[in-house]
Amino acid sequence: MRTLGPGGFDPRNDILGLMVNRCCHVFSSTYSSLYDPMDWMFTETPERSCVSARQPFGRISVANSDAAASPHTDAAFLTAHWAVEQALGTDLSQEGERYRHRAVISALLEPWFARRTLAESGAALSARRLLYAPYRTFPELAADPAAPLAGPRRRSSRPRSS
């Protein structure tokens, strides 16, 4: 506050969230039917430690594979998606909400894309059957011979309807 306060910084309004990463996940435990209650295996009961640990504390949410009690990357992404929804107070399954919060979503995705070339990003997205395309300007699109709209245009021989 001493450094940023005079410039108008207000942590209550200016901090959306903080991320603390711990590396390297050697093992993220899952619940076991051998010694954990059976309902923990198939439900999201509040008694499960991962459920209670990921409850928001003010504007702080825990989102990682540990918070899902799963060693899998998809679980980390799902809890991150949930945490972003909690922080924004929205439902990101709605297209209009994703558009409304596009700046936040872009800021969250940017570090992943920044560490990869276009070819690497494309390969990773294609492997997961995700629809994507690189951003191109109109001149770049028009110059691309593989683009469906590139090249000279022919006038239609069909008469125009009035």
Describe the structure.
The protein has 162 residues and is an all-alpha fold. The protein has helices spanning 11-14, 38-42, 49-53, 73-88, 95-100, 102-114, 118-127, 138-143. The protein has 8 helices and no strands. The longest helix is centred in the middle third of the chain and has 16 residues, at 73-88.
Write the layout of secondary structure elements.
Layout: H1 11-14, H2 38-42, H3 49-53, H4 73-88, H5 95-100, H6 102-114, H7 118-127, H8 138-143
Brief write-up:
It is built from eight helices and no strands. The chain has helices at residues 11-14, 38-42, 49-53, 73-88, 95-100, 102-114, 118-127, 138-143.
Please tally the β strands and state the result: 0
Radius of gyration: 23 Å
In total, the number of domains comes to 2
**What can be said about the biggest beta sheet?**
none
- Note the run of SSEs as H and E: HHHHHHHH
Contiguous low-pLDDT stretches (5 residues minimum) are none
Specify the structural class. mainly alpha
Mean pLDDT: 77
Helix content: 40-55%
Report, as a whole number of angstroms, the end-to-end distance: 67 Å
Strand content: under 5%
Gross morphology: extended
Number of separate helices: 8
